[in-house]
Amino acid sequence: ERVSLEVFTCRGELPGPTALIVGGIHGDEYEGPAAIWEIADTLPRERVTGTVVLIPIASPLAWQAGTRVTPPDQVNLARVFPGDSHGSPTERLASFLFDNFGRNCDYLIDLHSGGVEYDFLPVAGFRGDASPDNPSYAAARAMGLPALWRLPDRPGVFSREVARLGKVTVGAEYRGMGRLTTQGVRDYARGIRSCLRLWGILRDAAVEPVPQPEALYTSRWLLCPAEGVFTTPLRLGDVVAAGQTLAEIRNARGRPLAAVVADKSGTVLAVRSKAYAREGDWAILLGTRVEMP
């Protein structure tokens, strides 16, 4: 099936670096595409040095279906970069995005949310050390989200594979549950503009100050130990103790089947919002707070 991508390009009057802003790698995530469309509508070309490339919806078939995976092959686009030009439909799409855009940018912002199945604390993710000398860390700070997140080194993720080319990358998460929050759109659009200023691509004065992040986390996913109905009293940002029961898996009649127990103390960064879960599904993202430099 042929796929058409909507791509906006703003080339400034002066030469300079290229920033790539991508949303909609998963088809059930909405703040990123909405913020990118806003930037496409409002970015002043006369104040741009270099080039800004905007891709609101990187996976159009998944977007149309409202799913995390691409319908033709049921593959998660965010797990197959750099792709395969002779592979499945999703692998071919990954190859096209990586070769035509990922390889040709200097900076990348990859915008996500928790989709229809999760609720995610707004976090700006970076790769490498939490150091002011790390440009990925500096860009994550510039996003202005409440927390910083040292991204896991998961193969196939767009920002991870582009970073391996020596590019500066940022990956962000913002709420989810299949909703579009106006605050999320505002925060993402503000973060995009802030990064463009940091990189010397956008020459304008910030309309509003960019908040400083309040915490820095590493993280690990706790998995659902059984199939059934997932229930939890937790809220984003809750601090939990080692050995604490965080959620239960129940059968259709409400009988307990298994529990999700914290192996360490930590902070809830993301929590499953879809009630029905299968064994091995992500349950809770538990963050470990790290001192910020």
Q: How would you characterize this protein structure?
A:
The chain has 293 residues and is of the alpha/beta class. Helix content is 22%, strand content 30%. The protein is globular and about 65 Å long.
Would you kindly provide a brief summary of this structure?
With 293 residues, this protein is α/β, with parallel strands linked by helices.
Largest sheet: 12 strands, mixed
Report the end-to-end length measured between terminal Cα atoms. Answer: 49 Å
Oligomer kind: single chain
Structural class: alpha/beta
Average of per-residue pLDDT values: 96
Number of helices: 6
Features:
12-stranded mixed β-sheet, alpha/beta, single chain, 22% helix, 6 helices, 16 strands, 293 residues, 4-stranded antiparallel β-sheet
List strands and helices in order, with pairings.
Elements: E1 8-11, E2 14-22, H1 31-42, E3 49-55, H2 60-65, H3 89-102, E4 107-111, E5 118-120, E6 123-126, H4 135-142, E7 147-150, H5 158-163, E8 168-173, H6 182-198, E9 215-223, E10 228-231, E11 239-240, E12 245-250, E13 256-261, E14 266-272, E15 276-277, E16 282-290
Parallel strand pairs: 2-3, 2-4, 4-8, 6-7, 7-9
Antiparallel strand pairs: 1-3, 5-14, 6-8, 9-16, 10-12, 10-15, 11-14, 12-13, 14-16
